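Pipeline run #58 for the internal structure catalog. This entry was flagged by the ingest filter as a single-chain record with no existing model, so it goes straight to prediction. Upstream metadata was stripped on purpose; only the residue string is passed forward. Reviewer on rotation: M.T. Logging verbosity set to normal.
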Amino acid sequence: TDPEKGKDVEAAARVFSRVLTKDHFHRMVVLGQFNLGFIIVRVGSDIFILDQHACDEKYNFETLQVRAGAS
């Protein structure tokens, strides 16, 4: 196999495995919305597509955890 291709695959895997943290939300710039369910945001030089429903569910779950005294 081509060693350069392997490096490209590894680099792509690192980029696509990044996770947004709560700190990222403070730095997000909303660029737009599409399909009535997704928000396009920029964090630094990166662009992300956020599922509005999934974000809302996570927020509601974490709020419930705090109110119930769970961590």
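catalog note: Strands lie at 29-34, 38-43, 46-51.
catalog note: The mean pLDDT is 88.
status: ready for reviewer M.T.
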